[in-house]
Amino acid sequence: MSLLLDVAYMLGLLGAGTAARWLGLLTTERTDVLTAFAFYLALPALIFSSTATKSLESVFSPALVFGFLFVLCAVAAVGWVVHRRASSPATRSVAVVQSYHTNLGFLGLPIVAMTFGDLVTAKASLLLGVGALVQTPVTVLVLTFLNDADASLRSELRGVVTNPVLAALVVGLVCSATGFVPPAAVLSGASTVGSLALPAALLSVGASLSFDADDVDPSIVTSVVALKVLVMPLVALVAFSLLAVDDAGVKAGTVMLAMPTAISTFVYADQLGGDTRLASTTVFTSTVVSLGVVLVLVQFFG
């Protein structure tokens, strides 16, 4: 029953964010402030508080990181093949990117933190950092290559390196490696701020979702969503099991990769010549479908 209540809570926050936008309560400026709070404060606080008190050996797993990267690359390759006959480069580029580019930060980590214990959250924080380093450069490369668009990979990489999520992860892992235990007040404050990551992120995501399915091929939306929230976690579960990843790592990796397509893919599509209608429709659809998949996975993991 608690799992159903958790999903109802998440859907309620998403719906509240969307309703607040329609009612004019969450304007673009207010949504930006909420997003900034989640990105610059709540998520880094959650990452730091979950990793700083764990040993490095318990958090870092080469097999987990390798499996995570393998799944990202494998699904990206499948998406490239499946959507090779899309009607236009703009459509194909978005379909490929949205097949693998996962909402690890605004949905993945907060949901893992709400559902599982501290160790699973710490491993999910590690995967969020790895994903931040990999997903954005690959997405920019795919969009610029297929759309023959102009983009400064250097500036994108600079944005990745200065990501506050990565900074918080590095600080947390340094504490893990050295055995330094931050003051109780610091950990308590970080934990309190980090607990606001999920509601802030869900309200922000809900306010940013839009559904514009006019002239969008439903078969492409279906295939993208199927790859993202059905095939990807299934491949992850198999890969992590074959690599003998520990139980906490399997939970963290599988649930994180079951998250929907990241909203940032719409932004990149808009900037780099992608099909923005397909992007917005797929983000909306995958977000709704993924919550059901997460419920199933949480029940599966017990």
TrEMBL record:
It is found in: Cell membrane. Keywords: Cell membrane, Membrane, Transmembrane, Transmembrane helix, Transport. One of its GO terms (cellular component) is plasma membrane. Its main location: membrane. Pfam families: Mem_trans (PF03547). It comes from the Archaea. It is a multi-pass membrane protein. The chain crosses the membrane at residues 6-26, 33-53, 59-82, 103-120, 126-147, 159-181, 193-213, 225-244, 250-269, 281-301. Belongs to the auxin efflux carrier (TC 2.A.69) family. This is AEC family transporter.
